[in-house]
TrEMBL record:
It comes from Novosphingobium colocasiae. CDD domains: Radical_SAM. NCBIfam families: rSAM_link_UDG. Keywords: Iron, Iron-sulfur, Metal-binding, S-adenosyl-L-methionine. It comes from the Bacteria. Its cofactor is [4Fe-4S] cluster. GO terms for molecular function: catalytic activity; iron-sulfur cluster binding; metal ion binding. The lineage of its organism: Bacteria, Pseudomonadati, Pseudomonadota, Alphaproteobacteria, Sphingomonadales. This is DNA modification/repair radical SAM protein. Gene3D superfamilies: Aldolase class I (3.20.20.70).
Amino acid sequence: MSRETLRERLEILADAAKYDASCASSGTAKRNSRDGKGLGSTEGMGICHAYAPDGRCISLLKLLLTNHCIFDCHYCVNRKSSNVRRARFTPQEVVDLTLSFYRRNYIEGLFLSSGIIRSADHTMAQLIEVARILREEHQFRGYIHLKTIPEADPELVAQAGLWADRVSINVELPTEQGLTRLAPDKNGPRIEGAMGNLQSAIVEAKDASRRFRAAPRFAPAGQSTQMIVGADGASDAQIVGKASTLYGRFGLRRVYYSAFSPIPDASAVLPLQRPPLLREHRLYQSDWLMRFYGYAPAEVQDAADAGGMLPLDIDPKLAWALKFRDRFPVDVNRAPREALLRVPGLGTKAVKAVLAARRHRTLRLEDIARLTVSVRKLRPFIVTADWRPTLLIDRADLRARLAPSPRQMELFA
């Protein structure tokens, strides 16, 4: 078979990278080349691939170094037994593509992952070489995210943090049983061991930077990971518990969720249909509750049903409030911040505005209505100067009243 052109390989390897969701670029240091030194930037607008917390759009060239792989993970379209078209870049070709796309103002950075070819060490060395050439030979100051390989030598994995803004290692599945059944070449303790090594290196680098001005930076945007949702039988409660453990043990910036997507020539052990995309969305909402709203993992798990699944028709915050109605209603003029954050429909910005406004005046229902898209969800859960829900919070049909109305699906959507 004739060798594919660069463009054909780009189409194959960019498409193969779409299954990895862990490419957000939040948390990196702001750098640019406006002083005439170096090349690239972690700031600016372009083709959107990821958003930082402050709203900046970081456009990333997202691809695989190769989709050849010596592993045979059942859920992976690039597993060694898959019948997909294969392609491969050299490190220099990825460098040239990155610079070319940057100069055309298409991207602000690079997200690079890879299948494992020859060995984990060989592949990891090639990934590192891409980042090294960009940083050292071209003074590239844009964002770089490297997907590291836990099976590689720990010293190689550590080198990735010297060149990349963010590093990540995918735990893949939330349970050890699922990983053993669907990814027999991977090892859960080894994956977490590699994450622990990276966390130690990040902490040491931060400590060194406080003491020495010239200390080398190490993965300033931290590390992240990804879990596949729906490939095994893990419940939402198990996934939430696993995510909480990872945040606590390894100081992760983000845990990303990727709904399992049926692949060509799929293994018989995989489900025939993908889970609802709304399930992935609910897991992200539960992640937000733990990270920004002060919910303990057990409280988020309490929002799930008896089978450990979060409801799809309502968000987990509302589901929790409906289960624990004794915590409501909350007086918006007197309640502490922690209680206000539990009110369905009130976000962190709205709570901040409530706390600031009530120092100067007593809040009425119309004041709260200005802070939210719809006051309908809030009414059963709050008390204001002119509103008290009386028995509304105890109504048996409260869930039905607050859940979104069912919509007829379009036949040709």
